[in-house]
Amino acid sequence: MTYRTIRQRLLLGAGSTVIMSLLLAAAANSQASATRFDPAPRLASNTHDASAPAHPEVTHVHFWEELMLEPQDAWSKLRESFHWRGQSLPAEAQARIDEWIDHYRSSPENVAEITERASPWLAWITQQISERNLPGELALIPFVESSFDPNARSHRGAAGLWQFMPGTGDALGLVRNGNYDGRLDVVTSTNAALDYLEMQADQWYEGDLQLSLAAYNAGAGTVNKAKQHAESQGLQGNYWNLSLPQETMHYLPKLLAIATIIDDPERYNVSLPDIHTEPAFAKVKLEHSVTLSEASTLLQVDKSALADLNPGLLNGALNPSSAQTLLVPEDVDHGVLAELSNGTDERQSVASADIPDTYRVESGDSLSVIASRYNLSAQELMRLNEIERPEALQAGQLLTLSGR
């Protein structure tokens, strides 16, 4: 079973083998994890009295009235998307999760602090995961990885909400230079992380996302060896039967523990911040450079608020050669947004010329740089040009930039 849509298969299929080889090499140098706090799926779903009254139509009206009265926020939307609640696990596996539940519930103020930090991002990340039909628990990976701090950096070199190592980020096409770091860009890195998890699940684990999560932390090579060893002992090669590095042994239990708490915060004496169901930011695509100071003045928004939403802009300015999307608070005046983007529509504003059909590679170019310049992904550029070895790109080579 696989969660990838047909569109995503077409997008990633052609270059997945090469990308996975790059990722395996990058993962050998790290277990890209930088955090101290983690999430987990909840087990209690919202239910109502199932006793049936005498008249079915009365039950029907009562049911819809119940739904209308039930408040909706980002947390309830997240809970609705949980896939792993109530899964049947061996006692030893459940004990590993319960150990982390006890750990988190012992300091509910820490959970509250991290979930508060998640406020700008949670609704949007949940939305992206839902659109891919992935388990909602994955939206809590940043709880485990970075305590939902987009600027988090580990001593090993991992960075961002999803804690990508430099080599892994490069292999996934995350642009990284003196002005911009795609690993810190929440929108770009979230899409890369979900692509990575889906790609590994399909490439190695027949769609098993729990094994892909282990590989996200320890590297696919480490997980594959542990899986082969477990199967040689007559065990099923699932996550719970594998002997892995200690950090990876804790990785999924942490995620499931925090999801359990999020699923029923009152039970665990945890207070969650109010987060609206809609994303807290709007995306403005630009073809011209702009500093955060200039945008702050035009939008009448604090520069610090823009900086918080755009941590990937290392020097406080957007340069279209590295990044084309500026995040702004969602309540910014639409007319001003249009002015910022040279008069185009506010949320989909793209002040750019039509993308040419072809591009001739210049000395010093890389796939990620070219892809970013024309608002493509490196994977899509590889697919369009049937490229299997991105490192073999040569000056003078003619690349197709569209499927036309």
Outline of this structure?
This protein is mainly alpha-helical.
Describe this structure in words.
The structure is a single chain. This protein has helices at residues 6-13, 16-27, 56-69, 74-80, 91-105, 108-117, 122-131, 141-146, 166-171, 186-204, 209-218, 220-232, 246-263, 292-299, 303-309, 334-340, 367-373, 378-385, and strands spanning 281-285, 290-291, 317-318, 325-329, 358-360, 398-400. With 404 residues, the chain is mainly α. The longest helix is centred in the middle third of the chain and has 19 residues, at 186-204. It is globular and about 60 Å long.
Could you name the key traits of this structure?
404 residues, mainly alpha, Lysozyme, Membrane-bound Lytic Murein Transglycosylase D, Chain A, 3 domains, two-stranded antiparallel sheet, 6 strands, 5% strand, Membrane-bound lytic murein transglycosylase D, Lysozyme-like_dom_sf, signal
**Percentage of helical residues?**
40-55%
Number of helices: 18
What is the percentage of strand-forming residues? under 5%
The number of distinct β-strands equals 6
> For the terminal residues, how far apart are their CA atoms?
32 Å
What's the number of domains?
A: 3
